[in-house]
Amino acid sequence: MNALAMLIAAAAAPVALGDPAEDARVRALEMEIRCVQCENEPIAQSTAEIAGDMRVLVRERVEAGDSDEEIRSFFRDRYGDFVLFRPPFDARTWLLWAAPILLILAGLGAIAAMLRKRPSAEPLEPEDAER
Question: What's the pTM?
C-alpha cells in the first residue's frame, strides 16, 4: 500500500526545471500567490485543484521567460489584488497598507484618553502616610 501512495505522490509532484535558479523562482512565486479557493494558503501549500492549476501556470510562465513582476501582474489581472499576499501600494490599496498603522494609533489614542480620564490619586495626609 505504501508503494501505491509513493507512486501517486511522485506523479503529482511537479517536475523540477533544469535550472535550479528557475526552480527556486517558481517556489518563491508559489509562496507569494494566494489560493483563490482556500484564501489563506499559498498555492505551494494548497491541495485545491485550482491551486494545482495555478502552480502549473507559474511554472509555464517561468519556462516561457516571464519576469516575476509579469507573473504577479498576470495573476493580479486575472484574480485581483487579493491573489497576492503582498499587494502593490497604489491608490486602490493604500488603506490596506495603512490599516495596521492607523489601528495602532487609534489604540494608543484610546489608551491615552483612558489615562487622562482616570481620577488622579489624592495625596496622602501625614497621618495616612505613617500607616
Answer: 0.59
